Amino acid sequence: MMKYAVSLLVGLLCGVALFIIVLLNNPFVAKRTLSPLSVGDTAVTSLSYTVVPTKTIAFTNSGEMRLQPHPKGIRLLREGTVELTDVMVTEMRDARGQTAGIGVKFSSRSERTNLLRGEALVDSAWYVHLPGRGSFFVEQSENYWPFIQNVFVPAYRNSANSWKGKWSGDLSTGPGALGVARVTGVGGSLLGQSMAAVESLSVQAYSTDKGPVSAEGRLLIEMPSDNVTATD
Amino acid sequence: MLKTFIIGLVLGVLATAGALYAVPLVDQQREHSLVSVATNGGNVESFYINVPADRILAKQPGQDSLMPDTLDWPGADILQPIAVELYKIRNERGVVIGVASQSSEVGATTTDWLLHLPARGSQLISVQTQATLNGARRGDLRAGSREFAKRRGSVAVRWVADDSADEGVAGGRIEMLTNYVSQVDQQ
Q1: Which one of A16, B76, B126, B136 is least enclosed by Cβ atoms within 10 Å?
Q2: Is residue B28 part of a domain?
Q3: Does B50 have pLDDT greater than 70?
């Protein structure tokens, strides 16, 4: 009798493991290989920023996540309604690497997350202010599933609990057509403009303890042509 | 015994799939939305910020004091005229329901507020820097996401000083009274 119970238990554990392996390599999850903005003929401007919390101007969350708040002493989001939320203030750089403005990003785990469909979703909102050009609001859902598959899980599988390499992927999955983020100009020469954007992530090193060690985010924005400088 | 193992294997696969399907991985804590209907139409909702208790970050142009005091503001000239403040926001009952940022530039006629309510969505509000006769500053909802995506309307922002606050510390609260109409309703 005991050996049957052990056999059933081992079978159960193997079943769970098998399902997780299949889930992480789910062939039915569509892989987006081409940015929706790269297929259009409109001008695109690029803004990059660091996603390493200690390199941002400020980053805070509940304090119980992998990503640690920065700088020291910043207020934490411990209340139940905001404990699944991250807040980031960061310097935005243009394509030449020059400081172009400031970005504030609020992101919260989404209740629409469904790992069976390969969706680890985050609902986020950006406010970006570019002095001399204007400001805009970005609303989007981001899917971190490709990041989990390609960086997060390999980091856990590594005996050093870290991952090094080169991974880049688009995060935006809507609400705009073709999975782009919706952008609304709210100030300066961008006021009233409706635009589209794609946020992408590029990771070179990741630690399971500290999160991203070397990584950069990028907002590609389809801007009205008179707002795009020659160097964008 | 092999049969038992295979039964266990199948059960393990089905149980994991069932659990992932039935149990929500993310469950945002919600507070009741305290919304009332205005006399002449629109939904009215109030948000509050207790200052300084709810302030997360503050950087004002030309001021040396930063909050938190460990904040290292970048030295780029282009960022010096920018003011940024981050807050927690509360509903009418005083419960924290989200986070907000207030951003502006020296000389600008408006201040932009980004309100983020994790369980509901975000709203971007542009508020006039000049107060009206009753002391409130008027603003407009410029854009929103999820619950606020199809809404437009106005906001009145008022600073209410708290005289009982500690000496030397500007205490009080920021009150935001929103009056939104669904764009579908307007058609």
Answers
A1: B76
A2: no
A3: yes
> Chain B window 90-149: which residues touch A at a Cβ cutoff of 8 Å?
95-99, 101, 103, 105, 108, 110, 112, 114, 116, 118-119, 121-122, 124, 126, 142-146, 149
| Chain A partners within 8 Å of B97 (Cβ) | 81-82
For residue B23, is it within any domain?
no
A65 backbone φψ class: left, alpha, beta (φ>0; ψ -120 to 50): beta
Q: Does residue B139 surpass a pLDDT of 80? A: yes
| pLDDT tens readout for residues A38-49 | 666 678 899 999
Hey, which residues 160-219 in chain A have their CB within 8 Å of chain B? 175, 182, 184, 186-187
What tokens were used for B148?
């606020």
SS (H, E, C) B78-144: HHCCEEEEEEEEECCCCCEEEEEEEEEECCCCEEEEEEEECCCEEEEEEEECCCCCCCCEEEEEEEE
Confidence at residue B67, expressed as pLDDT on a 0 to 100 scale: 86
Q: Which residues in chain A come in under a pLDDT of 50?
A: 230-232
Whether complex ipTM tops 0.95: no
Domain ranges of chain A: 43-227
Bridge-partner residues for B57, per DSSP? B86
Q: What phi-psi label fits residue A132: left (phi over 0), alpha (psi between -120 and 50 degrees) or beta?
A: left
The CATH number given to whatever domain includes residue B179 is 2.40.480
Higher pLDDT, A112 or B41: A112
Closest CA in chain A for residue B97: A81
Q: In sequence order, which residues have a C-beta less than 8 Å from that of residue A5 and are 6 or more positions away? A: none
When pLDDT is cut at 50, 70 and 90, the band that residue B24 belongs to is confident
The average pLDDT across B160-164 equals: 81
The answer as to whether B173 is a domain residue is yes
Residues of the domain holding B102: 34-186
What phi-psi label fits residue A178: left (phi over 0), alpha (psi between -120 and 50 degrees) or beta?
left
